[in-house]
Specification:
The structure is a homodimer. The first copy, chain A, has eleven helices and 17 strands. Chain A is α/β, with parallel strands linked by helices.
Amino acid sequence: MQTDEQLIRRTFELADKGRGFTSPNPVVGTVIVKNGEIIAEGWHKKFGCDHAERMALKKAGDAAEGATLYVNLEPCDFEGKTPPCTEAIIEAGISKVVASMEDPNPKVSGEGLKILQKAGIEVVSGVLEEEAQKLNRGFVSLMQKGRPWITLKMALTTDGFIGDATGKSQWITSDRSLKFVRRERKKHDGVMVGLGTVLKDDPSLLPDYRDGYIPYRIVMDESLMIPYKAKLVNGDYVDRTIIVTGEAGKEKRWNEFQKRHASIVKVDREKMGWIDLEDAFQTLGEEGLSSVYCEGGGRLAASLVDAGLVDELQIFIAPKILGEGIKSFDGFKKSLDQAIQLQWDEVKQFGPDVLLKGRLV
Amino acid sequence: MQTDEQLIRRTFELADKGRGFTSPNPVVGTVIVKNGEIIAEGWHKKFGCDHAERMALKKAGDAAEGATLYVNLEPCDFEGKTPPCTEAIIEAGISKVVASMEDPNPKVSGEGLKILQKAGIEVVSGVLEEEAQKLNRGFVSLMQKGRPWITLKMALTTDGFIGDATGKSQWITSDRSLKFVRRERKKHDGVMVGLGTVLKDDPSLLPDYRDGYIPYRIVMDESLMIPYKAKLVNGDYVDRTIIVTGEAGKEKRWNEFQKRHASIVKVDREKMGWIDLEDAFQTLGEEGLSSVYCEGGGRLAASLVDAGLVDELQIFIAPKILGEGIKSFDGFKKSLDQAIQLQWDEVKQFGPDVLLKGRLV
């Protein structure tokens, strides 16, 4: 007989199967247990499809009566693309619901659990809540801040450069770190670079494996200057490209990129003419992106940390010294007293490199 | 009954008691064991004093006959400040000698052990040799390269700066890291900075605790420009200051510093007028310094890594971003292909900072 924690962990595993396909919905997994046995499992496969609870209940059929339902997120109680899950749970005769966390969606936030309790169902909430929050941190960010979870990745030399004095940056870090980065891309709804990186490196920003889900490739291009020949606007995945621009004119270029099936998003500009990042991420949130993996360069990195728009930092430090090169954070000059303060949550050797995971404080 | 490894570890502990006082001699500890019991211990307390073996043999007296002697370094077989230890061991009637490593001193290097064997003593060598090498890495460096073991310590922001744009560098890292550094000073025969650091920070370079041993404070001052008011040439410990210069003139300044009991060492200059570092460290080695802890600044750091004159790197990375500041390695501009390559041996969180220990490869 498995413990509540073990069964909730199983819902995490199931939830993760939908990763990349459910946004802006959360990833959700459900396990139905009767007499100590798992009788059905379900997960939210894709935005618009059955919720995890409904999928599991359908599988369980009549056996759901008197069973316990485990789920990593409070069941919804409102009519969306699908009818409310609370209704299905009550109808199936489930006698107990164990959930990890309340739904951060203001339309739900505790209401779903209350409805279940009123219907006479025993409700337990908060099992492995911290992990559940992490599992759906993109969704939580969308619900609470209206913008995606933002991860900033940087690859630096030990003396802090992201490229040598000639502009070369391929590759500062090792194969192992590059592979890690390409795998991380698949864990996010979008991958972002600044136009400078497109002009210099012409990246494709694709994950290693092209089967299944391809994250959006986002370029911050304030004046809509991305070259027609750039990889991001050519090839098989142009429909997975989003150009974020502050430029409303340049109709010919707009039309050309739209003809190629790239998306263009017009956002506000700041006084200096640079994209208003807060507006940009709010807009990406409205487009349904719950997480964005920002890969630099130095100007985008500086803008993000200066605006406080970084939820997680991933800094790779390569065992190399250049003496001179391209600055990693290009856009401000802080005194030591006013330095941007970070906190490291994880520090480890990563092949020949070092990986520091942290956040702004 | 203790194993050979346990008894050799005890010699390491005893050896370490002499740390700071024995240079240019190695640190040595000795344990004499009879019938499974330690009957005497000894260590080399200070350059010119009894060697560890002799101290232990004196304590053991007649009981040494038939006993086993453990020592972290091959006993010497030549007449130096004291008579050869091999002689004392043979005379005392020791029946077995267990040593960690051969003496890297070309005057010994295996000869001491051979003499013991010829005298009918059973000899075992190589127990925990790697650790023994590390224990006396300064001495090994002096014997094999004619120069001290060189450790380069740097305190960097995450974006690679050692000071902000105004020049301020106190303090980039946390109290805990600063304390670590002050403790490290006491583990070295000398602590070194470039003149730039003296002009900017006016450091005292003293360890936390002033009791006992004070390491030499070395300033690389190519043109003998250190100010008369600098802390390094004032106060209680001027006799522990060494000024390394390429300047033979400036007689008035020479006389003034010597009057204050600072040492001045004249070394060669390179074509560019900068101190010939190889000559400088050879000279410090001849002065008896077996280890030097270099604390920057950026110009000294760049010169050291560029000359390959770094045996250990200690890099503290503070959780701070400045955007702009004083470069950590100031003196060259490498392409990515020609970057100075490092290797990390140890990576860990150190309070709020990260400590990377490594070396040049």
